[in-house]
Amino acid sequence: MKNITFLIIFTCFIISLNAQSVIGAWESSSTSTSGEKLKSVLIIADGYQVLTTYNAVTGEFINTNGGTWSLDGNVMTEKVEFHTDNPEMIGSQFSFKVQITDNEIRIVDQEKIFKRIDDGNPGKLQGAWLMSGRIRDGNTQLRDTNRPRKTMKILSGTRFQWIAYNTETKEFKGTGGGTYTTINGEYIENIEFFSRDNSKSGLSLKFDFKLIEGNWHHMGLSSKGSPIHEIWSVRN
């Protein structure tokens, strides 16, 4: 009996260790049929992931998909919450084999390789967050994070991406991402792609941020120059 209990605990530990090893950001390069260089960035946070492809030179957005994930040994299982190329896949679940090392994820059946960008560090805001409210004119307007219409932001140690979508209607509203830093209460986004406006690629936006009772308060000017005070809550 003791041996069986030890085996169960050890197996759970190995699964947890494998899952932890994929946390962070990963990158893969490819070339389009017209010869353009493409970049695919995979951000994996605890329980949630997003994969996005865009033009490595111009920042033109190509596609994105993501949702929840789990890892059991060398089998990764994903449940799709958004998918710009195949919205009919939203709500479906699929599994595939992976080979994971410290610096590489190889998707076996697709012969696709992702190289590690970071391991979730330094990542003061690392994780998956949902827009849960705004403060306007001193008034707090809360948002139900359980509703189908979601705005999620996923951050690794150095990469960020926000995605707006609806799991019920399968609508994709928009996304943007790139690199970020958090220094002395200042959060800086360096945009590498923006699905609604390619001209935003290359912009750097500075915000103030505070962590208040576990919530991320995001304050400054939007990409359109409008003042914002957003509240983001950790996604469980």
Lay out the secondary structure:
Layout: H1 2-21, E1 24-31, E2 37-45, E3 48-55, E4 61-72, E5 75-83, E6 93-100, E7 104-107, E8 112-118, E9 127-136, E10 139-142, E11 149-155, E12 159-166, E13 172-183, E14 186-194, E15 204-212, E16 215-221, E17 227-234
Antiparallel strand pairs: 1-2, 1-8, 2-3, 3-4, 4-5, 5-6, 6-7, 7-8, 9-10, 9-11, 9-17, 11-12, 12-13, 13-14, 14-15, 15-16, 16-17
Instruction: Please state the CA-atom Rg, rounded to the nearest Å.
Output: 19 Å
The number of helical segments is 1
Give the percentage of residues in beta strands.
over 45%
Measured as a percent range, the helix fraction is under 10%
List keywords for this structure.
236 residues; mainly beta; Lipocalin; 8-stranded antiparallel β-barrel; 1 helix
Can you walk me through this structure?
The protein folds into 2 domains: 97 residues, Lipocalin; 108 residues, Lipocalin, CATH 2.40.128. It is built from 1 helix and 17 strands. It has an 8-stranded antiparallel beta barrel with strand order 1-2-3-4-5-6-7-8. A hairpin with a 3-residue loop joins strand 6 and strand 7. The chain starts with a helix and ends with a strand.
